[in-house]
Write a structure and sequence with these properties.
mainly alpha, about 55% helix, globular
Length: about 170
Amino acid sequence: MQFRHVFGSASGFQSVQYRLVEFLLGNKNKGMLKLFPKDSDSYKELHAVLLTPSVYDVFIQHLHKCGYPIPNECLQRDWSKPHEFNDDLVAVFVDIYKDTNKHWDAYALCEQLVDVEQSFQMWRFRHMKTVERIIGFKKGSGGSSGVAFLKKALELTFFPELLEVRTHL
């Protein structure tokens, strides 16, 4: 609490680097660009990443190139928006997970993405608990609702079909 006043209105929410990571992982939100002046390098860099496929999109494209029956709506979409859950994509992952020997390379990549998801979620959780421990339920330094905002972020997922596939096995 002794150094919190130094933050002013700044927060990780406004960090260019954090936003880049979120955008690259697929949590795309065009509204986040408003935090940066349009003529700034930060804005330009974030805008460029907003318009490119996420890590998950690139992975899905890779699976398509390897011959997996990826739904067209996963391949040709607006990259500036978050990936939307797709039941047909779950079916592709079910086939991969049911025969890991046959689909080892794809399966291994799936599990590495799940590791990324889990690690990021653990970071989010630890961050939320640290904020809760230090400031309780006060307003966040960037003007967010603080802990409530961070708890809601725990509901976000980058690779939803890779988590859903377990329900179908």
